[in-house]
Amino acid sequence: MIYSLSIEEEKQILIQQFTKAAGKHRELLDLMLDAYPKALPTSTLQKGLATPGYHAFQSTLRNAQIFIQVKTYQCNNTNQMLHSFDTQAIERVRVQRLLNQCSCF
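The structure corresponding to this sequence follows.
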């Protein structure tokens, strides 16, 4: 199907969402992008950023969400907090491709 996207295409769409990010915010988003489509636990992101504590990490995460939404949820098996990109921008491109194929308009 033409409206299905490869992982590389999805990553390019995500990169477009946060091209203007800089500093720790960009580092956080880049770490998440490297692991995409897999969600990363808070501990992995904190190590990758070398943040001094949980509150500094939360501040960085909150400020990174200015550029792109990040979903945070708790894993039932491990009780870890996981973070992944919201896929709204990707879904928008999929819908656009689907509509471009439709000849009913």
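Strands lie at 40-41, 70-74, 81-85.
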